[in-house]
Design goal:
Blueprint: E1 7-13, E2 18-24, H1 33-48, E3 54-58, E4 62-65, H2 70-73, H3 78-96, E5 102-106, E6 108-111, H4 113-120, E7 123-127, E8 133-134, H5 146-155, H6 161-166, H7 173-179, E9 184-186, H8 191-200, H9 207-232
Length: about 240
């Protein structure tokens, strides 16, 4: 099995108040186990830094993420598959339950685990135009894991849940706003700048009050996701 290397770079922007985390593997921006661990570490480090108000997670031009590493997902190591999907659930939950706001700069396509990562972020900015965003698992013969069903049911519009989950419908930027994958869609070249602008607005919030409020707001869903991801590892 070929080990996929995802380049992850970080930069402090907006006068140092926002940590920009950029993913670029030159291809699908797949979520590998190492990439998941590194993103999680950056979120934790930002949350521990009193000078940082928010995190922005961005993809490369034209691609936010195509989902999990196919080298693992198409392999014959069942435990490796279960562990990677569970790792993905932990990452999405980590962003969702973080004591610091996490903003997604969806620079292009976001499918499968890429779309689930959008659901875990507080604010999501995507690209207008010919992009594909959504949960295509059923179309490729997969059943969404329990943790993914939990976050999808929590964040997606009830009007769109059936079509997005069971019917595997992929959406463009404007449709993704209506469905709940995104909060707004802008011209592709403005996605990262707009995400940083929105992230910088969180400097107006008192960090401890935000963290305490989000704990009350999301604790039940986050706890369910944690249990569901942990259960996958023992199947």
């Amino acid at each position: 099995m070929v080990t996929l290397r995802v380049m992850i770079t970080t930069e402090r922007v907006a006068d140092g108040t926002v940590l920009l985390v950029k993913l670029d593997d030159g291809k699908a921006n797949a979520f590998t186990a190492s990439a998941i661990a590194e993103i999680t570490t950056h979120i934790d480090a930002a949350a521990a830094d009193e000078n940082i108000a928010a995190v922005v997670i961005a993809g490369r031009k034209g691609r936010f993420s195509g989902g999990f590493d196919l080298g693992v997902m198409r392999g014959d190591d069942i435990q490796a598959i279960l562990d990677l999907v569970a790792d993905g659930g932990d990452l999405v939950r980590h962003a969702y339950a973080a004591p610091i706001p996490v903003v997604a700069a969806c620079t292009g396509h976001a499918v499968a685990a890429g779309a689930l990562m959008l659901l875990g972020c507080d604010v999501r900015v995507g690209a207008l135009g010919d992009v594909k965003i959504g949960l295509n698992e059923v179309a490729i013969g997969m059943v969404l894991p329990d943790w993914a069903m939990t976050i999808a049911s929590e964040r997606l519009s009830k009007r769109h849940l059936q079509r997005c989950v069971a019917n595997a419908r992929l959406l463009n930027g404007s449709e993704a706003v209506d469905a709940g994958f995104l909060d707004e869609a802008v011209e592709p070249e403005r996605v990262i700048d707009r995400a940083i602008e929105l992230a910088a607005e969180f400097t107006a919030l008192q960090p401890n009050a935000y963290a305490g409020t989000m704990l009350k707001f999301r604790a039940e869903t986050a706890a369910a996701m944690a249990e569901q991801a942990a259960a996958m590892r023992t199947l």
